[in-house]
Protein backbone atom coordinates (compact mmCIF):
# COMPACT_ATOMS: atom_id res chain seq x y z
CA UNK A 1 0.00 0.00 0.00
CA UNK A 2 1.40 3.38 -1.00
CA UNK A 3 0.26 6.42 0.96
CA UNK A 4 0.42 9.81 -0.72
CA UNK A 5 0.71 13.04 1.25
CA UNK A 6 -2.38 15.28 1.22
CA UNK A 7 -2.37 18.52 3.15
CA UNK A 8 -2.66 18.17 6.90
CA UNK A 9 -5.98 20.03 6.79
CA UNK A 10 -7.54 17.55 4.36
CA UNK A 11 -10.20 15.26 5.74
CA UNK A 12 -9.21 11.62 5.82
CA UNK A 13 -11.73 8.79 5.50
CA UNK A 14 -11.39 5.02 5.73
CA UNK A 15 -14.03 3.00 3.90
CA UNK A 16 -13.90 -0.71 4.66
CA UNK A 17 -15.66 -2.76 2.00
CA UNK A 18 -15.01 -0.17 -0.71
CA UNK A 19 -14.66 -2.31 -3.82
CA UNK A 20 -18.33 -2.59 -4.77
CA UNK A 21 -21.89 -1.65 -3.90
CA UNK A 22 -22.68 1.05 -1.38
CA UNK A 23 -19.16 1.10 0.05
CA UNK A 24 -17.71 1.91 -3.36
CA UNK A 25 -20.35 4.58 -3.99
CA UNK A 26 -19.60 6.23 -0.64
CA UNK A 27 -15.85 6.19 -1.30
CA UNK A 28 -16.39 7.71 -4.74
CA UNK A 29 -18.69 10.43 -3.40
CA UNK A 30 -16.30 11.32 -0.58
CA UNK A 31 -13.42 11.67 -3.04
CA UNK A 32 -15.57 13.90 -5.25
CA UNK A 33 -16.11 16.14 -2.23
CA UNK A 34 -12.40 16.57 -1.58
CA UNK A 35 -11.74 13.86 0.98
CA UNK A 36 -8.68 11.64 0.84
CA UNK A 37 -10.17 8.17 1.01
CA UNK A 38 -8.35 5.03 2.12
CA UNK A 39 -10.40 2.44 0.23
CA UNK A 40 -10.07 -1.04 1.72
CA UNK A 41 -11.30 -4.33 0.29
CA UNK A 42 -9.99 -7.75 -0.67
CA UNK A 43 -10.99 -7.38 -4.34
CA UNK A 44 -8.11 -5.67 -6.13
CA UNK A 45 -10.00 -5.37 -9.41
CA UNK A 46 -12.93 -3.63 -7.74
CA UNK A 47 -10.63 -1.13 -6.04
CA UNK A 48 -8.84 -0.39 -9.31
CA UNK A 49 -12.17 0.21 -11.05
CA UNK A 50 -13.14 2.58 -8.24
CA UNK A 51 -9.85 4.44 -8.67
CA UNK A 52 -10.41 4.68 -12.44
CA UNK A 53 -13.87 6.20 -11.91
CA UNK A 54 -12.54 8.79 -9.46
CA UNK A 55 -9.66 9.76 -11.76
CA UNK A 56 -11.93 9.90 -14.81
CA UNK A 57 -14.08 12.58 -13.20
CA UNK A 58 -11.10 14.91 -12.77
CA UNK A 59 -13.14 17.44 -10.83
CA UNK A 60 -11.39 20.56 -9.52
CA UNK A 61 -10.81 20.24 -5.77
CA UNK A 62 -11.53 16.53 -5.79
CA UNK A 63 -9.77 14.27 -3.34
CA UNK A 64 -7.77 11.14 -3.96
CA UNK A 65 -7.82 7.46 -3.12
CA UNK A 66 -5.31 5.27 -1.39
CA UNK A 67 -6.08 1.68 -2.33
CA UNK A 68 -5.67 -0.85 0.47
CA UNK A 69 -6.21 -4.39 -0.89
CA UNK A 70 -6.42 -6.14 2.45
CA UNK A 71 -8.49 -8.68 4.37
CA UNK A 72 -10.14 -7.14 7.43
CA UNK A 73 -9.87 -10.45 9.26
CA UNK A 74 -6.06 -10.20 9.15
CA UNK A 75 -5.25 -8.48 12.45
CA UNK A 76 -1.62 -7.80 11.52
CA UNK A 77 -2.61 -6.18 8.23
CA UNK A 78 -5.19 -3.99 9.95
CA UNK A 79 -2.70 -2.95 12.62
CA UNK A 80 -0.21 -2.05 9.90
CA UNK A 81 -2.84 -0.03 8.04
CA UNK A 82 -3.85 1.92 11.14
CA UNK A 83 -0.21 2.58 11.99
CA UNK A 84 0.38 3.83 8.44
CA UNK A 85 -2.60 6.20 8.71
CA UNK A 86 -1.26 7.47 12.03
CA UNK A 87 2.26 7.97 10.70
CA UNK A 88 1.11 9.77 7.54
CA UNK A 89 -1.80 11.88 8.79
CA UNK A 90 -1.98 11.45 12.55
CA UNK A 91 -5.76 11.13 12.49
CA UNK A 92 -8.85 9.74 10.82
CA UNK A 93 -11.90 11.95 10.37
CA UNK A 94 -14.34 9.28 9.19
CA UNK A 95 -14.65 5.51 9.18
CA UNK A 96 -17.45 3.96 7.10
CA UNK A 97 -17.75 0.24 7.76
CA UNK A 98 -19.40 -1.33 4.72
CA UNK A 99 -17.55 -4.66 4.67
CA UNK A 100 -19.82 -7.64 5.07
CA UNK A 101 -20.03 -11.35 4.32
CA UNK A 102 -23.43 -12.35 2.97
CA UNK A 103 -23.67 -16.09 3.58
CA UNK A 104 -26.06 -18.05 1.35
CA UNK A 105 -29.56 -18.32 2.73
CA UNK A 106 -30.19 -21.58 4.53
CA UNK A 107 -32.35 -23.02 7.32
CA UNK A 108 -30.67 -22.68 10.70
CA UNK A 109 -30.29 -26.44 10.97
CA UNK A 110 -28.42 -26.57 7.66
CA UNK A 111 -26.05 -23.59 7.91
CA UNK A 112 -22.66 -24.56 6.50
CA UNK A 113 -19.99 -24.38 9.20
CA UNK A 114 -17.55 -22.61 6.87
CA UNK A 115 -20.17 -19.97 6.05
CA UNK A 116 -20.94 -19.53 9.75
CA UNK A 117 -17.26 -19.13 10.66
CA UNK A 118 -16.69 -16.66 7.83
CA UNK A 119 -19.79 -14.65 8.79
CA UNK A 120 -18.65 -14.35 12.39
CA UNK A 121 -15.05 -13.57 11.38
CA UNK A 122 -15.95 -10.77 8.97
CA UNK A 123 -19.21 -9.35 10.30
CA UNK A 124 -18.56 -9.63 14.03
CA UNK A 125 -15.01 -10.36 15.14
CA UNK A 126 -13.30 -8.04 12.65
CA UNK A 127 -15.63 -5.22 13.66
CA UNK A 128 -14.69 -5.56 17.32
CA UNK A 129 -10.98 -5.65 16.51
CA UNK A 130 -11.21 -2.66 14.17
CA UNK A 131 -13.02 -0.54 16.74
CA UNK A 132 -10.10 -0.93 19.16
CA UNK A 133 -7.60 0.01 16.44
CA UNK A 134 -9.50 2.85 14.81
CA UNK A 135 -10.87 4.67 17.84
CA UNK A 136 -7.51 6.34 18.70
CA UNK A 137 -7.25 7.66 15.14
CA UNK A 138 -10.76 9.11 15.34
CA UNK A 139 -10.05 10.60 18.77
CA UNK A 140 -7.01 12.34 17.32
CA UNK A 141 -9.22 14.14 14.80
CA UNK A 142 -11.28 15.83 17.52
CA UNK A 143 -14.98 16.27 18.09
CA UNK A 144 -16.11 16.04 14.47
CA UNK A 145 -14.75 12.53 13.89
CA UNK A 146 -17.38 9.96 12.95
CA UNK A 147 -17.75 6.22 12.59
CA UNK A 148 -20.66 4.99 10.47
CA UNK A 149 -22.14 1.49 10.50
CA UNK A 150 -24.72 0.21 8.03
CA UNK A 151 -27.60 -1.70 9.58
CA UNK A 152 -29.49 -4.50 7.82
CA UNK A 153 -31.97 -5.88 10.37
CA UNK A 154 -32.40 -9.51 9.28
CA UNK A 155 -31.93 -11.15 12.68
CA UNK A 156 -34.62 -13.74 13.29
CA UNK A 157 -35.87 -13.86 9.70
CA UNK A 158 -36.26 -17.24 8.03
CA UNK A 159 -33.10 -18.50 6.32
CA UNK A 160 -31.00 -15.49 7.39
CA UNK A 161 -29.45 -17.29 10.37
CA UNK A 162 -25.70 -16.83 9.71
CA UNK A 163 -25.99 -13.39 8.13
CA UNK A 164 -28.69 -12.08 10.46
CA UNK A 165 -27.03 -13.23 13.68
CA UNK A 166 -23.51 -12.05 12.79
CA UNK A 167 -24.75 -8.72 11.44
CA UNK A 168 -26.90 -8.17 14.55
CA UNK A 169 -23.84 -8.83 16.71
CA UNK A 170 -21.91 -6.26 14.69
CA UNK A 171 -24.57 -3.62 15.28
CA UNK A 172 -24.75 -4.53 18.97
CA UNK A 173 -21.04 -3.74 19.22
CA UNK A 174 -21.62 -0.46 17.43
CA UNK A 175 -24.49 0.49 19.73
CA UNK A 176 -22.37 -0.19 22.80
CA UNK A 177 -19.60 2.00 21.38
CA UNK A 178 -22.16 4.66 20.49
CA UNK A 179 -23.47 4.78 24.07
CA UNK A 180 -19.98 4.81 25.56
CA UNK A 181 -18.76 7.61 23.29
CA UNK A 182 -21.58 10.11 23.83
CA UNK A 183 -19.43 12.39 25.99
CA UNK A 184 -15.94 11.49 24.83
CA UNK A 185 -16.42 10.91 21.09
CA UNK A 186 -16.15 9.86 18.39
CA UNK A 187 -19.64 10.23 17.05
CA UNK A 188 -20.99 6.79 16.12
CA UNK A 189 -23.78 6.65 13.55
CA UNK A 190 -25.84 3.57 12.76
CA UNK A 191 -27.72 4.06 9.52
CA UNK A 192 -30.19 1.79 7.71
CA UNK A 193 -29.84 2.21 3.94
CA UNK A 194 -32.92 1.98 1.76
CA UNK A 195 -33.23 -1.26 -0.26
CA UNK A 196 -30.64 -1.01 -3.03
CA UNK A 197 -29.87 -2.87 -6.24
CA UNK A 198 -26.64 -4.39 -4.93
CA UNK A 199 -25.10 -7.77 -5.69
CA UNK A 200 -25.68 -8.80 -2.08
CA UNK A 201 -29.39 -8.10 -2.28
CA UNK A 202 -29.62 -9.90 -5.61
CA UNK A 203 -28.26 -13.02 -3.92
CA UNK A 204 -30.87 -12.77 -1.19
CA UNK A 205 -33.82 -11.87 -3.44
CA UNK A 206 -33.01 -13.13 -6.97
CA UNK A 207 -36.51 -12.64 -8.37
CA UNK A 208 -36.97 -9.10 -7.11
CA UNK A 209 -37.82 -6.26 -9.51
CA UNK A 210 -34.63 -4.20 -9.23
CA UNK A 211 -36.28 -1.23 -10.93
CA UNK A 212 -38.17 -0.64 -7.68
CA UNK A 213 -35.00 -0.41 -5.59
CA UNK A 214 -33.14 2.72 -4.53
CA UNK A 215 -30.29 4.34 -6.42
CA UNK A 216 -26.90 3.53 -4.88
CA UNK A 217 -25.33 6.90 -5.68
CA UNK A 218 -28.30 8.81 -4.29
CA UNK A 219 -28.14 6.75 -1.11
CA UNK A 220 -24.41 7.37 -0.78
CA UNK A 221 -25.08 11.10 -1.03
CA UNK A 222 -27.79 10.88 1.61
CA UNK A 223 -25.59 8.97 4.04
CA UNK A 224 -22.61 11.28 3.60
CA UNK A 225 -24.85 14.23 4.39
CA UNK A 226 -25.24 12.71 7.87
CA UNK A 227 -21.50 13.06 8.55
From TrEMBL:
SUPFAM superfamilies: NAD(P)-binding Rossmann-fold domains (SSF51735). GO terms for molecular function: oxidoreductase activity. Keywords: Oxidoreductase. CDD domains: SDR_c. InterPro entries: NAD(P)-bd_dom_sf (IPR036291), SDR_fam (IPR002347). Belongs to the short-chain dehydrogenases/reductases (SDR) family. This is SDR family oxidoreductase.
Amino acid sequence: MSLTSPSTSQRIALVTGASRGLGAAIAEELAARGWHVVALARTVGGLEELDDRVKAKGQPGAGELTLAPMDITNDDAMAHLCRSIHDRWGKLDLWVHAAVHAAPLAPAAFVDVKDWDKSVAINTRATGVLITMIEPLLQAAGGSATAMFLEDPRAGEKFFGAYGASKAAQIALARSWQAEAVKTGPRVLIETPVPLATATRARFFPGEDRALLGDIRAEATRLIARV
